[in-house]
Recover the amino acids of this structure.
């Protein structure tokens, strides 16, 4: 037997095994990340990133950015994104654009965000259309927002499908069309998108493009609320509080209002304040009423501002303070004729 040929074949086989193993590890990095197995993903992605696997560098950057396994560190995230970007990896361009768009790890800069998003598209990363759609929407450039959101929706991105549906529903940069809104909501619903579930419930609540149906509205709100969407949690609480398509239940109303309020949803915060103020299903507690009214008022909720002023005026849940009462009555007067009249009377 020719020893050289045997050795040559053996070396070639080892090469195939090593190549296959390396490729498997690179695939495992993203797979583990998508499965939310972050500890294992961190180890595998770190190995890959150190050997210049560009996709693993981006994923490692994302883990630093979001605080998955590592402590959240935008400087580390940007370091890994930049390493991949230096090799013209378009997914990294998009990631850097998001950092500039949100001012995370770098000063917020719309021009630089747009530059990186467009560069990602130029280099073939079509998912950057998702970022461009959101970018233009925040800039209130609804024409370009619609254009890029539609591209992203056609790629199958559920958030973009929801956003496109909302644009058709609201008539942003396009003629209002409830049929098209429903079409795109259903696309997003098929992927379990919580935003689409809440918005679809709203269509049934208002009777937009469908027959008004509180039962179906509640069904979709509940699905969205179960996924943690604060607006939907508020809506479920509202339905229980007023007994819309479900048996009136103040305990369940409180439960869902509280979940929403804890996430900072101002409408749920004022409803909690009302429940404590008037003792609806729970023992009256002016201190708690004051607490939740203030939370909501500080976010600009007009009714909460008026209620807070009232609490200060009469010393409910807080020491009476005429200056604070006047301040909050004045704040509430900007959007409410009754509040304005109260403010003017209180000044006298």
């Amino acid at each position: 037997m020719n020893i050289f040929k045997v050795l040559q074949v053996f070396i070639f086989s080892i090469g195939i095994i090593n190549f296959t193993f390396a490729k498997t590890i690179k695939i495992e990095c993203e797979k583990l990340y998508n499965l939310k197995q972050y500890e294992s993903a961190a180890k595998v992605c770190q190995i890959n990133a150190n050997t210049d696997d560009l996709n693993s560098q981006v994923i490692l950057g994302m883990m630093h950015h979001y605080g998955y396994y590592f402590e959240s560190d935008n400087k580390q995230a940007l370091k890994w994104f930049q390493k991949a970007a230096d090799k013209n990896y378009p997914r990294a361009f998009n990631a850097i654009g998001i950092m500039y768009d949100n001012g995370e790890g770098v000063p917020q800069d719309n021009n630089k965000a747009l530059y990186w998003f467009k560069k990602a598209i130029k280099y073939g990363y079509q998912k950057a259309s998702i970022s461009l759609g959101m970018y233009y929407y925040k800039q209130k450039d609804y024409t370009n927002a619609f254009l890029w959101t539609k591209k992203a929706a056609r790629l199958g991105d559920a958030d973009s499908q929801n956003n496109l549906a909302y644009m058709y529903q609201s008539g942003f940069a396009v003629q209002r069309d409830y049929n098209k809104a429903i079409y795109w909501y259903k696309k997003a619903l098929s992927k379990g998108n919580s935003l689409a579930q809440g918005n679809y419930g709203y269509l049934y609540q208002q009777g937009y493009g469908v027959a008004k149906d509180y039962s179906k509205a509640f069904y979709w709100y509940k699905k969205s609320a179960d996924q943690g969407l604060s607006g939907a949690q508020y809506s479920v609480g509202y339905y229980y509080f007023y007994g819309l398509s479900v048996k009136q239940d103040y305990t369940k109303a409180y439960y869902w209002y509280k979940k929403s309020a804890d996430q900072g949803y101002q409408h749920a915060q004022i409803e909690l304040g009302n429940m404590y103020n008037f003792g609806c299903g729970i023992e009256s507690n002016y201190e708690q009423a004051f607490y939740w009214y203030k939370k909501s008022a500080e976010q600009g909720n007009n009714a909460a501002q008026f209620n807070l002023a009232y609490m200060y005026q009469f010393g409910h849940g807080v020491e009476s303070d005429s200056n604070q009462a006047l301040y909050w009555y004045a704040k509430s007067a900007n959007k409410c004729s009754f509040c304005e009249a109260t403010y003017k009377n209180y000044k006298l």
